[in-house]
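ok new one. same drill as before - structure tokens go in, u give me an amino acid for every spot. 86 of them this time. try not to just spam alanines like last time pls lmao
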């Protein structure tokens, strides 16, 4: 399922990517009719790439380096919380 190829994924699948809202997905679909999208095109469209990077695949971009990092879990895990003693 993930990482999704942005140039081939359906609208419903693109909506599951964190950082892609309905407006961004509509812009992606309109833009990919004319040419294959690259990472820079998504930045220009206004996608929140900080959230979307681990979940997408594009020509010239692959999340392989991001998924191996230990901070991927820290980025999406809830912040730690101090428990009460009594």
């Amino acid at each position: 399922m993930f990482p999704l190829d942005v140039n081939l994924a359906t609208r419903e699948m693109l909506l599951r990517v964190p950082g892609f809202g309905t407006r961004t997905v509509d812009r992606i679909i309109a833009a990919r009719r004319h040419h294959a999208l690259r990472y820079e095109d998504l930045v220009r469209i206004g996608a929140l790439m900080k959230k979307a990077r681990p979940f997408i695949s594009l020509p010239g971009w692959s999340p392989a380096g991001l998924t191996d990092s230990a901070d991927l879990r820290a980025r999406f895990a809830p912040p730690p919380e101090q428990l009460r003693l009594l």
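The radius of gyration is 16 Å. and btw DSSP finds six helices and two strands in the chain.
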